[in-house]
Amino acid sequence: MPKLRFILPWTTKEAHGEQGQSILEVGQKAQVPLGHMCGGVCACSTCHIWVRRGADSLPEPEIAELDQLEYGFDLKPCSRLACQALVGEEELEVVVTEESLRAYFSENPEEARKGREEGFWPFSS
């Protein structure tokens, strides 16, 4: 079971995934704040992540993912949608983007309030 390291502005979370699971599924089980306004069906770009390590072990993105990524913010060559990127054999290091965090906290206002109170709110506004 490959290890996934999720990089957040205030911490790092680690989880183990099974081959074929989406990065979003692994992150959800590990309680990583990943936005997914469409429910993880490749209909938005709110689960946008950057894969810093292990990207070669992921299947190539399909056209639907590439189309949705065009709506994302701050795209990089290592950009993927967590709902579409399936875990391979290698360990992964994933940066949760500001876009995804903002979507998550928008969907979960109680978590946003808790983050502000505990001092890990990563945004200026």
Shape: globular
Please state how the strands of the largest beta sheet are arranged side by side.
2-1-5-3-4
Low-confidence stretches: none
Give, in order, the helices and strands. EEHEHEEHH
Find the count of extended strands (DSSP E, 2+ residues). 5
Q: Strand share of the residues?
A: 15-25%
Largest sheet: 5 strands, mixed
Number of helices: 4
Measured as a percent range, the helix fraction is 25-40%
Mean pLDDT: 94
How far apart the termini lie comes to: 38 Å
What's the gyration radius in Å?
Answer: 14 Å
Class by alpha and beta content: alpha+beta
Task: Describe how the helices and strands are arranged.
Elements: E1 3-7, E2 12-16, H1 23-29, E3 48-53, H2 63-69, E4 79-81, E5 92-96, H3 98-107, H4 109-118
Parallel strand pairs: 1-5
Antiparallel strand pairs: 1-2, 3-4, 3-5
Description:
The chain is of the alpha+beta class and 125 residues long. It has four helices and five strands; from the N terminus they run ββαβαββαα. A five-stranded mixed sheet has the order 2-1-5-3-4. A hairpin with a 4-residue loop joins β1 and β2. The longest helix is centred in the last third of the chain and has 10 residues. It is globular and about 40 Å long. The model has no long low-confidence stretch (mean pLDDT 94).
